Amino acid sequence: MAKITLDGLAHSYYPNPKTDADFALKELNYEWDDGGAYALLGPSGCGKTTLLNIISGLLVPSKGNILFGSENVTELQPEQRNIAQVFQFPVIYDTMTVRQNLEFPLVNRQVPKNEIDKRVADMIQVLDLEDKADRKARGLTADEKQKISLGRGLVRYDVNAILFDEPLTVIDPHMKWQLRTKLKDLHRQLGHTMIYVTHDQTEALTFADKVVVMYEGEVVQIGTPEELFDEPAHTFVGYFIGSPGMNILSSQVKGKTARIGSHEINLAHEYRALEENAEVGIRPEFVTLSSGKTGMPVQVKSVEDIGRFKIVRASLEGQDVNAVLPEGAPVPADPKVSFDMSRINIYENSHLVRRGA
Ligand SMILES: Nc1ncnc2c1ncn2[C@@H]1O[C@H](COP(=O)(O)OP(=O)(O)OP(=O)(O)O)[C@@H](O)[C@H]1O
């Protein structure tokens, strides 16, 4: 296992990149702790695979260095980096049994037989494959095959890191939850440095201690799930994390007041006059609807009942505002919205100026 240092990393697929927009991965400096569980999260095309391929050695970055511990591995091939990788689709030998598939990476590395037997038996148990252990992989389901792929990565104990590239894509939804939880447990038990690429926020937030959120080639925030929820550093993070995401409302901010359309709301802190693209960010969980005199009138567009709570989608003078209400809470006929002042974050040019509390 090793700490991984990304030192001034950047990558362009063009031979002579000129502008920032030419870079699929914009400059990044970061240290990933030894034994940490990280997720790379972002929409399609944001640069997750580019970064993962630089870490695994499939791609040499246009700029910067990557270090495992104190060793500069920037120019090393994947097989020289001592990493395990699990891909979207199962990579296993169909003609081997489950057990033989799991033994294979260890046999290849000349691990002593008694150690192989022990580790493989443990892994078979962890993956709940005891009753299939001596069956050929060929006849197994896609879920089971992918479990073997995960096992082939996890069974190796001497690796610098284990990289997962959307590993649960082929897994059915119920099993996804089980495997996610299992991966988290395994991380606690084994202590490997793990990097998990996904565009699914639930996967990222349940698996990782730290989530690296990427947007248009840029790492816009690295934080714990709580940090991403409470203080998104960028409006994209606010919008992307949460279900529904944060409400982002164009406004004018000055002193302790934000003007949204024809309304003024009070803020918990004093701000300099924000000249450019000021926005108020408020999570739907901290928006209330009332029929009283106070608040800003909205038009309700839809109400979705999702069991324990409901999502009210409304329009505030043309800007979308969502509210999450507890189960059974009424939606007034002429509703007005209010925001919990301590939960209002202020953004300028998409970047957080200050959180509410
Ligand atoms: N081999 C390549 N040549 C040129 N451009 C590429 C290449 N690979 C990726 N890109 C571009 O780089 C950007 C980042 O792509 P990347 O595959 O890293 O994103 P991603 O977040 O992993 O997306 P996805 O989730 O769809 O795999 C995209 O604009 C993509 O079109």
UniProtKB/TrEMBL annotation:
SMART domains: AAA. Its main location: membrane. It is a peripheral membrane protein. It is found in: Cell inner membrane. Gene3D superfamilies: 2.40.50.100, Nucleic acid-binding proteins (2.40.50.140), P-loop containing nucleotide triphosphate hydrolases (3.40.50.300). It comes from the Bacteria. GO terms for molecular function: ABC-type ferric iron transporter activity; ATP binding; ATP hydrolysis activity. Residues 4-241 form the ABC transporter domain. Belongs to the ABC transporter superfamily. This is ABC transporter ATP-binding protein. It comes from Ahrensia marina. The lineage of its organism: Bacteria, Pseudomonadati, Pseudomonadota, Alphaproteobacteria, Hyphomicrobiales.
